[in-house]
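Subject: for your reference before the review

Hello V.,

The reviewers asked for a structural picture of the protein, and I figured it would be easier to keep everything in one thread rather than splitting it across files. Below is the amino acid sequence we used in the manuscript, unchanged from the supplementary table.
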Amino acid sequence: MTTPTTVSNALPIAPSRRKFQLPRMQELGLLMVILVMGTGLSIYGAMDAAPGRQNTFLNLPNLVDQIATNMSYYAIMAVGMTLVIVTGGIDISVGSTMALSALAGAWVLQHFPRDASAPQVLALGIGVPLAVGFACGLLNGSLVVAGLHPFIVTLGTMSIIRGLAIVLPPMKTLPTAGHRLPDAFTTHFALIKIFGLRIMPMMITLVVTAIGWFYLSLTVGGREIYAVGGNEEAARFSGLRTHRVKLRVYVLAGITAGIAGMVSLGRFGSASSNTANGYELTVVAAAVVGGASLSGGRGSAIGALLGALLIAMIENGIDTLHWNSEYRKVIIGAAIIIAVAIDQLSSYLRARRLRGSHT
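And here is what came back from the structure prediction:
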């Protein structure tokens, strides 16, 4: 009978044999915060609604078309960001990658007639943004593996990729005047509706989250990511090719940014040089609020989804409460600081408890 390969005596990298893993306490706590916030906004939305009108928060189009759809971009990229953060890295170029991916897809698709056949249109509409995201992630990962600091690398590539998104298109917005994207990509794919509500962004988000959860929780590759983030030196001495693990997570982060670019392109039928401008902070916040530790070793795809949902609810709640939209930046920045402070406090208490158990 074979035994699982280990990074250390206490760190197996074989996939878990459990078919189902219970949510962590942090995820349950985050879910409770979301429920409490939703209850408060629902009560206020009912008080704020004009006579004869629906609750301004619990209105179904608001929940689906505003909260869930706006959340989709953050959540998709937050899953990829979580993979990077678990290894102890960071990628602040995801917003720029999303923009360039959407622009590349728009540039290719604008050359097709509106009634072009679905197979070719969908293959390019999906494949081109993902290929651009893959290339950007590969660039980031290669530079990090070469020994450069992840923050400095992705700070530089954020500027480079955004610059390319500005200078490469002949116009700042694509498709150019006189062109439209094929209906097979927009109306028939990206804007699939049930009861008049757009569901494709939400469906893609759930699929990406499910794949991220499966990969991190139930595969050898996911265990390797946690091993590198928990103790990179121990992982290397145990035979893990840590450079390959790091390269892999940056490529996956780039691909998720490409998926987000594809979703945005399909929803709006266009892309601009300003697409996803400033999304980097929001995506990092979603991953960190969702439980990813900036020191590495902890994080989950479900937590990333919940973190993105919380941020989308905050944004929508600001509108519901009629606050100045600039409060969004204040609240998101505060959420990052609070999440990091809680993570550091948890690490301190855990270390203290372990020291006490050994005395």
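For the response letter, the relevant points are probably these. The first helix runs from residue 25 to 48. The domain at 59-345 is CATH 1.10.3470 (ABC transporter involved in vitamin B12 uptake, BtuC).

Happy to draft the paragraph if you're swamped.

O.
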